[in-house]
Amino acid sequence: MPDFKGLDLTGKTAIVTGASRGIGAAIAIQLGQRGANVVVNYTNDKSERKATEVVNKIEAAGSRATLCQASVANVNDIPKIVDAALRLSQTGKIDILIHNAALGVDANLEDVTQELFQTHFDTNVKGPIFLTKAVIRHISRGGRVVFVSSAAARLGVAGQTVYGATKAANESCARVWAKELGQSHGITVNCVNPGPVATDQWQESDEQFRQDMQPLIESTPAAARIAEVDDIAPLVAFLCSEDARWTTGSVLCANGGLYN
Ligand SMILES: NC(=O)c1ccc[n+]([C@@H]2O[C@H](COP(=O)([O-])OP(=O)(O)OC[C@H]3O[C@@H](n4cnc5c(N)ncnc54)[C@H](OP(=O)(O)O)[C@@H]3O)[C@@H](O)[C@H]2O)c1
């Protein structure tokens, strides 16, 4: 009989930021289906219904889940996320932290404003740094931190000065924390780097940007199509598993081979 216990997440406690929609929702459901209890974080009042649907799907799979409305960009909200995880945890520990929430508004360099810079760095960089700092004192040995980065971190996509820089910062954090928190805390820290994925962030991006990306999408080695959220979520779940214990500080290709 095959033994896939190394992929099992039963009883683990996970935080997924930005889990009301898109890639984050798919990750939260995937972790729940593999047995993890999940904090489903979101920020906007309008997303409560969608976030509740994610919680319902996780509970239907037999795991526990809780909603947590909090902005990762606001350091005062961070304890809410940590407390929600500790309430959900059956061991008093947090096992999995997925940094998925991010802003991704495109702007050519000439159009970059201080506000765009600040909101993106607050959400995409400051949030993960201070959330990790708050979680780390509760993390279990064997714990996992995964960033949802982007191919934009290294691909050099026109219009992504700020967004690309935030994602490059995430990948840098993963490499630093793999060393700083590896032996000391017994955890791994990794990234996945999707290319275009059919989510709200993609649909809401500039029409011209989407047209410009079409040739790139059609050149995707794995298949000439945009990714779906379920192309990404299993890769994140794998990085959260015991089987992934020897992978840390890495960026796992999650873009069909567009960029590695
Ligand atoms: N879609 C793509 O093509 C693509 C490609 C590469 C990488 N990525 C990355 O994948 C991740 C998810 O992207 P997506 O396309 O699924 O995004 P999305 O559909 O726009 O969803 C964003 C999620 O993040 C949440 N969020 C936004 N700001 C937040 C904050 N301050 N605090 C907490 N939650 C916040 C949103 O919550 P509300 O519902 O409450 O607003 C929502 O759940 C991001 O890191 C993104 O950079 C996406």
UniProtKB/TrEMBL annotation:
One Pfam entry name: adh_short_C2
Lineage top rank: taxon: Eukaryota
SMART domains reported in the protein's UniProt record: PKS_KR
GO molecular function: oxidoreductase activity, acting on CH-OH group of donors
InterPro entries: KR_dom, NAD(P)-bd_dom_sf, SDR_fam
Alphabetized UniProt keyword annotations: NADP, Oxidoreductase
Oxidoreductase keyword on record: yes
TM spans (from-to): none
Entry's family note: Belongs to the short-chain dehydrogenases/reductases (SDR) family.
Protein's UniProt name: Ketoreductase domain-containing protein
